[in-house]
Amino acid sequence: MIKYGLLFALFECKCTYFIIMMYQNRENYALLSRYLINFAPKIEKKDSEIMAKELKNLTKRSENYSQWYNELVVKADLAEQSDVRGCMVIKPYGYAIWEKMQRILDDMFKQTGVQNAYFPLLIPKSFLSREAEHVEGFAKECAVVTHYRLKTNETHDGVVVDPEAKLEEELIIRPTSETIIWNTFKNWIHSYRDLPLLVNQWCNVMRWEMRTRLFLRTAEFLWQEGHTAHATREEAEERARMMLKVYADFAEKVMAVPVMQGVKSETERFAGALDTYTIEAMMQDGKALQSGTSHFLGQNFGKAFEVQFLNKDNQPEYAWATSWGVSTRLMGALIMTHSDDNGLVLPPALAPIQVVLIPIYKTEEQLNAIREKLAAIADELKSMGISVKLDDNDQKRPGFKFADYELKGVPVRLVMGGRDLEQNTIEVMRRDTLEKETVPCDSIASTVKSLLDEMQTAIFEKARKYRDERIYECEDYEEFKERIKDGGFFLCHWDGTPETEAQIKEDTQATIRCVPFAFEQTPGTDMVSGKPAKYRVLIARSY
User: Fold this and answer.
1) Are 231 and 317 in contact (CB under 8 A)?
2) pLDDT at 53
């Protein structure tokens, strides 16, 4: 028997491994120390692999795409379910992405002459009743405030609604703000000189959803809603199309998400609109995600709320309207378009942290030297407008950090160890392809800047190639019913009737996403009814 032995217990506790050491004298402890020093690189490498696996442990997209998405949103610290039914908590990292979206979109809106404003959260019920189609479209989703006060219950251990505090008129928590805004516009618009009126508000809305999913469909969500008033129909229609292009440019150039622009069928229009324009994106499971809409509302709201102005001939006219919006649903589009089985893949334009720098060291002295070198690189990158994080936290191993930042989609990772320090080099890894290379430190700033630009383009091109390979022309309904199960966008002739549209939905759970602008329209025969068709529509299953 060994009188002074060592007992090692290696056990797993989520992502961290602990070595329990029991020793009886300094001699054996010294032996243990030398052993760990000699074999530390191997142990660290193995532990890093295990930690990475445990930290991610994502369901593969090919196994269960829906579960993969749900897990990724939570594991990447983007959002989580709230104790309030149907609502979510957007966590700091997720909100940082949304903030970037807000800032860029806000600037794009303002470049077209739009100004921000804010309108009440609560809308009198009577306002919704003034536009019949509008109220019918939202009636089943409305949350209603009926009382304005609580009181202590009889046992003084809780509260109840005070029955004497019933409102004379119920208030609706805004599902959208056309009614309250156009009720306000009538006080602002009197002459053609007051037009166009272009406003936007960033806010939350409530639509009572029974089946919810983080970012894609929640009872409460964040969005922007633009509302404009115009003197002529032509101006209003032009504005609606202009804002659709703003959304498409943002989706493709900033989010790196390719979209199809088009106009909705009458069945799919926004409640109260004469035309609804849309951008439709394809997710990696082949389903469509409506990612932004712009509505030409005609004079419906102008008439409903008596918003009249005197034209240049001094004659009274009703104002023409548009509304347009995108929401935190864009977060879902971003995740599902680009991310992989290792975690998020974020286009650099929207990544809260574009570059992370991680030191690998053996001694405190070495850490200080590497930290000084990395800090200088970080300062140079920041001066170029690149968002940077130097992670020298010694409470987490490099392997854990690698896995964490990969999971969170940080576009570029820079790693420096002792040998790199001596040779004045640094390891560069790009998140989209996971490729690594070692480059000289002297040119690292320009290398990273070029790499970020290259990644932004590459991520978009990859998504566009994926989508374009899954756009199909189809003229046979039986063939369509089989192929739609595997996802994709189908270009099919449609006779324009709601009956045919309803049959397609009932038979396949697919819907007409839009009449796309990108394809030349030619007459043909409807694959369902056999009737003449004027144009092709884009049909897909959707979120």
Assistant:
1) yes
2) 52
